[in-house]
Amino acid sequence: MSAPVTNLDQRYSDAAATAVTWAETQVILQAAELSWLSTVRADGRPHVTPLVAVWADGVLYFHTGAGEQKFANLRANPNVVLTTGCGRWDGGIDVVVEGKAVHVTDEQALTRVAAAFAAKWDGRWQLAVRNGRFYHGNDENWPSEVFAVEPARIFAHAKGDPFGATTHRF
To answer: N or C end: fewer C-beta atoms under 10 angstroms in the chain?
Structure first.
């Protein structure tokens, strides 16, 4: 992934604010324990759900069961927003990622992503790769489909003193 063009939006930032760096934004994405995925239902209504994701090689990865609402939504419209951050008003940085969710079935890619999930959560997420899907360990009953979101834009909202609104465009 190439480095994005980063700009501070003065319309939504204090005069003393500086842009959140791309390196700092990546650290937040790597450290996030929980993200919120926003998709759109076939009838146009929004759908938002919390999930775990991993940031690897400049891409956010998540997985879902084929019977879940988010999977149905992604089949109709791959455009998504993933959000993460501290959720505080007076400090920290919240991050918003916009992009398209691409279904990943390549077993070499899935093996790398499964290793990233295991490493991030100290081995608690043991995902086996078979037939282009993730399986929780040896459980054949609950396969999950994997999606990759390569960012189109990422917004980093610094809160506190000073407030700042940064955009990373790819």
So the answer is: N
Residue 113 phi/psi, 5-degree rounding, is: -70, -40
Q: Assess contact for 93 and 85: CB atoms under 8 A.
A: yes
> What's the domain count of the chain?
1
Q: Give pLDDT tens digits for 65-100.
A: 999 999 999 999 999 999 999 889 999 999 999 999
DSSP class of residue 64 equals: E
Q: Measure the CA–CA gap between 5 and 22, rounded to whole angstroms.
A: 9
- Strand-pair category, 59-64 with 145-158: antiparallel
Residue ranges making up the domain that contains 76: 5-169
CATH at residue 139: 2.30.110.10
pTM of the shown model: 0.95
List strand residue ranges (DSSP E) for the chain, in order.
5-8, 35-40, 46-51, 54-56, 59-64, 79-85, 93-104, 127-130, 133-136, 145-158, 164-169
Return all residues near 89 (Cβ < 8 A) that are at least 6 apart.
Answer: 159
